[in-house]
Amino acid sequence: MEVSRRTVLAGMAAVPAASLLDTRSTAVADVPEVKLSWLEGKPTTAAVTTWGTPWPKGAVPADQTFALKAADGSAVPVQSWPTAYWPDGSLKWSAHAIAVDAPAESYTLGPGTAAAPPQPVTVKNEKTYVDVDTGVIKTRIRKSGPELISHIWRDDVLIARKGQLVNLKQDKIAEDEEGGSVRERYESDVTRVTVEQSGPVRAVVRIEGRHKSKKGKTWLPFSVRLYFVAGAENVRMVHTFVYDRDGQKDYIAGLGVRFRVPMRDAAYDRHIRFVGEGHGMVSEAVKGITGLRRDPGATVRAAQIAGTKLPDPATWDQRVTTRLKWIPEWGDYTLSQLNADGFTVKKRTKKGYGWVSVDQGGRASGLGYVGGVSGGFAFGLRDFWQRHPTQLDIRGAYTEEAEVTVWLWSPDAGAMDTRFYHDGMGEDTYPEQLDALEITYEDYEPKFGTPYGIARTSELTFWALAATPTAARLGDLADQVRTPPQLINPVDQLISTRVFGGLVSPVDRSVPARKAIEDHLDFLFDFYRGQVESRHWYGFWDYGDIMHTFDEDRLVWRYDVGGYAWDNSELSPDLWLWYSFLRSGRADIFRFAEAMTRHTGEVDVYHLGQWAGLGTRHGVQHWADSAKQQRISTAIYRRFYYYLTADERTGDLLSELVDSDQTFLVLDPLRKIRTEPYEPDPHALAIGLGTDWSGLAAAWLTEWERQGPKADVAHSKLLGTMETIGAMPNGFVTGGGLYDLDTGRFAPVTEKTVSVSHLSAMFGQVEICAEILDLVEMPAFEAAWLQYCRLFNATREEQTAECGAYFGNLILRQGHSRLTAYAAVRLDRDDLAARAWKEFYTGDGYGPNLPWASEEVKSTLNPTQAAKWVSTNTTALYGLAAIQTLALVGDQIVNP
């Protein structure tokens, strides 16, 4: 689909002149319908999913109700709620949830009254507990104490009980083979329970607390959400913990979720299952009756292999029946995934006796089962091998009650080492730290390389089953754990609604110049996806991130060289991936971006302590660098996933950032390079107009569109900073201002000042300004932004004539070509459109004459591919410049 510059300009001109305060609902004649499809194709089994749908400005009232139809026209029960509003009060994003036994190929969402589920989920909120009933299972959630879930029943049969979090804490890490350390067990201690949704299709219960020892000591605050859907036999858990230590002591030696499972059946009717790679599985009974010296009978053996109830032992060959007591009962099983490419399975009869090796394999699914013919419990952890070290434990399956633990951090792996990786090397002063920065690119400062306040979120699912499932059924469950079903909107809906500022157009290979760029974009994504696999960018803290810069000599990425190691969102690869998905609808890009969002929003950002709301610059460890800034924590990196999936945990991350302007009171981003004394003043905080303001503006805009008129403070700060930036003689070129926390405005600036950095606009400022200017008519602010867009890549003479000084020898000119293209559209200037394409092709990024291919490397530890000319900074900026310049001035594309 060709999107011309004139069309884009017309869309921008159509933006109402109303201020953000105008929340009146627009009269709607015809609410559009949207056809939805499955991200990875129609699931083969029952599916549960939540998704978000965007709507054009003014098209859908805020209180609109929705109906969902399957491809055959039949009504599908759906639960809907708003997640964002346009300035005129109309609906911008709606969220929806369904649970279907037989998924259709596609669905149509439109106005109407939602069909009611035949078995609605219900919530009973009592003084000391909450009961949730899906119509198939009933779950009791305690409001205090160690248990998150006290009981799960199915048809009045208790399937699992005493669901709680378990943690092993270790006070030190052994430094030699003879060293040892005592481990202390902590369990969840619930302090707050909130019912966030109560049906009819979907119910959500949030549980908050800390881990507590028998001695009463606490640490590791957690937030757990439990998800229930109508007619479902499972509970989904989204588990988040925050690390509240400095990393130099108190180490995590195990972190998991534990349940007790009643075992009612005879030992030979009790079953253990682990699904490995694909649908291969360990499939055993607690008391096996196959392979014996005496044969109980083919029918008996076949029943045990199938997991069905065995015939009465009186019907067996009595040479077996009379000797059942001599057959061992295997009560304990462990599947341990300590690295991305290998898991082991072992078993033993009971505690105190030797382990027997069962088998080993590559990448386990993360799904297990324990139970019997009268009911059992299946459990699964998403990204099981990617987030190693992980583990699944079953203990005491021979007793009246088995114990199941899903370990997010395996106790077999040793303690989680969060210590800083070097001793400071004498970098005690700012001059020494700046000098070291010149060699390793690491911005070090004592006590700043701390993990205190970082977090990690994991997704688990638990099934209460009526009987031991078939192998095919277990395979289906494993697939759901690996890749949860996800409904998505068509590309046209994501683009035409302009919910992300109109900077994206569909993939288009209609002319050779476009085809070349599209091929280059595909190469870059496929290359990084391959690097994740061949370079093993996996692990509990690491999965979801990518590396920053390549080492051309060692032919590896610079994983051990200061600021060249983990990327931590430097120059916005998150945005590159999400914009790539919006225009293509590709499942592989969505999953890549999803993993990055889960990582960068949790691990690279502080959620507790004085730096809460700030992120950490790229480095050898995700928390190592001393630059703690808004540019990494910016809400614009998380908004895509939140709106596309309605994920509540991502919503928490967005809410955390609303008051992050307070961080400038405790940490000055420019403390090492200031030439004059500076003490943070709440009425005169030095805040940059680039990476600082864009991060704050993204948080305020997101809060305003999510909350509407209730977000009056965020709205006031957004509008106030926009007005005062627009009033500065040189606008954004000024570089920074003095911000008042109380008024949410910058102090007046009377003189023209020039302070421009190549980084200022490269961490979401382009994207957030495009969204804001689509929403708010503020001519002075628009003029200030367009001035910056026009002049960054302009000549020395043009910069000096307009702003009074030359901007300096700036870099990242290719990445800034999209700013020129944006100005071309807003100002309707063909000369700027032509200049944008010239900058794109001849800037300091990737040129059309590069190899655009990788080479096979066999000299490294594992065979891989290398492209020495690729760096993540340039990749992210090339991707964004290509996507946005094509969307803005693609009708004027030229051959390189």
Automatic annotation (TrEMBL):
Residues 484-892 form the PcRGLX/YetA-like C-terminal alpha/alpha toroid domain. InterPro entries: PcRGLX/YetA-like (IPR045793), PcRGLX/YetA_2nd (IPR048330), PcRGLX/YetA_3rd (IPR048331), PcRGLX_1st (IPR048329), TAT_signal (IPR006311). Residues 121-478 form the PcRGLX/YetA-like central beta-sandwich domain. It holds the Pfam family PcRGLX_1st. Residues 33-109 form the PcRGLX/YetA-like N-terminal RIFT barrel domain. This is Tat pathway signal sequence domain protein. It comes from Kribbella capetownensis.
